[in-house]
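User: Study the shape:
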Amino acid sequence: MCLAVPGKIMEIYDRDGLRMGRLDFGGVLREACLTYVPEARVGDYGIVHVGFVLNLLSESEAQATLETLRQIVDFEDGLAGGGEPA
């Protein structure tokens, strides 16, 4: 199974002829290639998988996805603790 995570584009720059971006994933900054989304701008949200932004999405879509991921983590934490899922 593959997982693509939304991140907010904070900076766009070129590196070795590739359009790159620095994205914010809830306070964690990571670099990703923007080649597949030439229309991307600072402030946009992108879905990132293995270092590539594959698609852009709205802020509301990004927030909904992040909330779902948080719920999954909370559920798994509840199971790991031997208790009921949160």
Q: What stands out?
A: The first helix runs from residue 59 to 80. Strands lie at 5-15, 18-25, 28-33, 45-49, 52-57. The domain at 5-80 is CATH 2.30.30.140 (SH3 type barrels.).
